[in-house]
Design brief:
Blueprint lengths: L38 E2 L1 E2 L28 H9 L6 E2 L8 E2 L6 E3 L2 E9 L2 E6 L4 E8 L3 H9 L4 E2 L18 E3 L2 E9 L2 E6 L5 E4 L2
Parallel strand pairs: 1-4, 9-11
Antiparallel strand pairs: 2-3, 5-6, 6-7, 7-8, 10-11, 11-12, 12-13
Amino acid sequence: MKRILVASAVALALSAASPAFAQNKADAGAAIGGATGGVAGATAGFFIGGPVGAIIGGFTGSLIGSEAGVSASTVDYVSLHPVEPVYLDGPLDVGTSLNADVNIYPVDGDHDHGYIYANGRAYIVDMKDRRVVLSPGYAVPQRSVDYVTKNKSAPIELKGDIGPGYKLSADAHLGAIPDDKAYSSVYINGRPALVDNRTHVIVWIGK
């Protein structure tokens, strides 16, 4: 019997990232197990950072879409086979229907589902109606990690255990990353970090 991914199963942890989700949990405003019914179209030719295949192992951040009937083997496949990332306009949640201009990639061994990498996350899609059914988490590109590690910018000091999932204030000063619209850079207590531009949630933090 296939293992079914449920809300309590957090997808693979990022290497070199703290798994702490102690404060200001990730993905504020995201629909957990909801169905927005929106429509998302691609912004052609825009990459969210890094060459295809160059992501830090696995996913980080909260899972979006509980009890979606997606097997763990499908999630593993999506993690191990990164594809060309795109940036989609508008909200992208469970129930969002992808326009015909969005290329959905097949999953070997699972004809019911496909997937995309968009807006800094991986999304699994029902092939019958092109609707998003699950997002295992953020997919962090190696190129962006390399950039923030080598280019110290936007230093801030915070108290407490700061890790992936911590949400920065809306007025926090962030540094831009070339060719990456999904993430910004920041140095927190001397540690390089990547921040999701839409939510100000930390998705990766170094040592």
